[in-house]
């Protein structure tokens, strides 16, 4: 059935007046049970990210290996973090699986996109633990948003009155004040305030979960390949 333009306008104009918009659906890069990598529209992209861009798997692995999480007990310490250096954000097997797909996503993303990741593991009782977030590049700065790290959805009792769906929105923190993201070595990290100033980035709702690195500095700090073993001439006894 074809509707007159006046009828369609009567529906569309009120929606436009309310500022309603529909974001494009995420494009899956890789998916399996409990593991999803996708390209998603980034409403905070502003003037645009530096995509598509070529990032090496070695660079990505080095970054993921350096990411750490540190607990933040808002009840006992009012948001003060401890002195410990935290725990690795990703295990080696996760890094091996994640890195090539994240690199592929950055190579296909548009300036208005970012690459999201969503992992679900299980605790000893079989309850889900969610690790999710996203990453993008602006002017040779690689941004990682670690919204959740092995976070139990049961933590929502401290944050919201409803259950958020981290698969639909991997950047949504389930338990916002449970941890902060760190990087080792710290010298590679660019402060979010400097990154926002240099790149014109609008920011994220909890910048303690954002890690920014300079890709060129990251490349310089990649571990060098193992040197070949020296050739030793056999000793011939008389």
Structure report:
- It is a single chain.
- The protein is an alpha+beta fold.
- It has one domain.
- The protein contains six helices and ten strands.
- It has helices at 5-17, 57-66, 74-77, 92-108, 192-199, 215-220, and strands at 27-32, 35-41, 67-71, 87-88, 113-122, 128-138, 141-151, 179-183, 189-190, 210-214.
- The strands form two sheets. The protein has a seven-stranded antiparallel beta sheet.
- Helix 2 (57-66) packs across helix 4 (92-108).
- The longest helix has 17 residues, at 92-108.
- It is globular, with a radius of gyration of 22 Å.
- The model is unreliable at 1-20, 74-83, 157-163 and 225-238 (pLDDT under 50).
Residue share in β-strands: 25-35%
What structural class is derived from the secondary structure elements? alpha+beta
Major sheet: arrangement of strands: 1-2-5-6-7-10-9
- Counting DSSP H or I runs of 4 or more residues, the number of helices is 6
Q: Span between N and C termini?
A: 102 Å
Instruction: Name the helicity range.
Output: 10-25%
DSSP E strands, number? 10
Low confidence ranges: 1-20, 74-83, 157-163, 225-238
Choose one word for the global shape: globular
Radius of gyration: 22 Å
Number of domains: 1
Mean pLDDT: 80
Question: H/E element string?
Answer: HEEHEHEHEEEEEHEH
Question: What composes the largest sheet?
Answer: 7 strands, antiparallel
Quick structural summary:
This protein has 238 residues and is of the alpha+beta class. The chain has helices at residues 5-17, 57-66, 74-77, 92-108, 192-199, 215-220, and strands spanning 27-32, 35-41, 67-71, 87-88, 113-122, 128-138, 141-151, 179-183, 189-190, 210-214.
């Amino acid at each position: 059935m074809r509707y007159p333009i006046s009828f369609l306008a009567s529906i569309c104009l009120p929606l436009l007046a309310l500022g309603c918009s529909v974001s494009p659906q995420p494009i899956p890069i890789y998916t399996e049970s409990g593991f999803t990598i996708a390209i998603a529209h980034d409403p905070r992209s502003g003037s645009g990210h530096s995509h598509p861009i070529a990032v090496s798997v070695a660079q990505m692995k080095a970054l993921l290996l350096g990411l750490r999480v540190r607990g933040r007990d808002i009840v006992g310490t009012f948001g003060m973090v401890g002195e410990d250096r935290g725990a690795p954000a990703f295990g080696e097997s996760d890094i091996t699986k994640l890195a090539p797909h994240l690199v592929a996503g950055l190579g296909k993303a548009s300036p208005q996109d970012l690459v999201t990741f969503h992992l679900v593991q299980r605790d000893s009782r079989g309850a889900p633990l969610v690790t999710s977030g996203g990453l993008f590049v602006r002017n040779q700065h690689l941004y990682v948003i670690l919204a959740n790290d092995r976070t139990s959805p049961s933590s929502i009792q401290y944050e919201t009155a409803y259950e958020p769906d981290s698969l639909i929105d991997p950047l949504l923190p389930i338990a916002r004040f449970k941890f902060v993201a760190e990087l080792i070595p710290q010298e590679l990290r660019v402060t979010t305030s400097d990154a926002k100033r240099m790149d014109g980035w609008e920011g994220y709702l909890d910048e303690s979960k954002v890690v920014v690195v300079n890709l060129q500095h990251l490349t310089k700090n990649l571990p060098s390949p193992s040197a070949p073993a020296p050739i030793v001439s056999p000793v011939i006894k008389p």
